[in-house]
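Q: A reviewer asked whether we had any structural model of the full assembly, not just the individual parts. We don't, so I'm hoping you can provide one. Inputs are below.
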Amino acid sequence: MQTSIEQVSNMIRALPLEDLSKLREVIDETEREKRTMDGEKQARLKYDLERYKKARKWINENSEKYMNKWVCLEGDELVAVDDDGRTVYQTAIEKGIKAPFIHHIVDESLPFGGW
Amino acid sequence: MVETVSFSKQYLYDTLKVGITVPVRLVLNDSTAVFEAKLDTGAANCIFERVHGENLGLTIESGEKQNFSTATGTFTAYAHEVSLSVLEIEIFTRVYFAEDESYARNVLGRQGFLDRVKLGLVDYEGKLLLSAYEK
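A: Here is a predicted structure for the entire assembly that you could use as a starting point for your response.
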């Protein structure tokens, strides 16, 4: 069951004076934690998208050469290439990449007709 | 009636590429798989290539079997629960991995993704707007 802001407000009003400063500390600490988490998420998203854009540019420029291959890219750097996506993933992990971007290069010259 | 909807994320996708393509992150235990997927309002579920599930350490056939129909036939996939992130919007959800290794599409469909987010689209500008769904 979710507590509404109105219920919380009523609970706060019922608190004794000495508990209000403790409550303020809890609120400040929670706010700090959430802001830090949001900041970290934003930074990671920015980094991931920049890395992805470089990888996408690489794919656009090299898809003909690597047609039907699986590739792992770290930005615009080719980390691994193979006919098997599992081998490519494993190679990337062994090279210390924790979240490898894996792409199967297939012919997308025809428009997709939907399901 | 005018309805205003706000979104927490904006992403400019490549309009020259086939489909509306976004980077996707799947996480299961300590394994992470990052790859591209296409938004597909016509797909009932999120369906990914088999390899991505295997890279997460899944035994694909241990999941619940589901047959899917397409305009030209049917194919089989298996359900698994994973953490799915698109533009840092993270959802713990049920997705499907295709049985056939030759299945070469990754789609974000309705159940498990579109029903868990708010989505806005301005295709002319290649603009995708996204938020986690909250009542």
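A: Points you may want to mention in the reply: The interface with chain B takes residues 41-42, 44-45, 48-49, 52, 56, 70, 84-86, 89, 98-104, 106, 108, 111-115 of chain A (CB under 8 Å). Chain A has one domain: 18-104.
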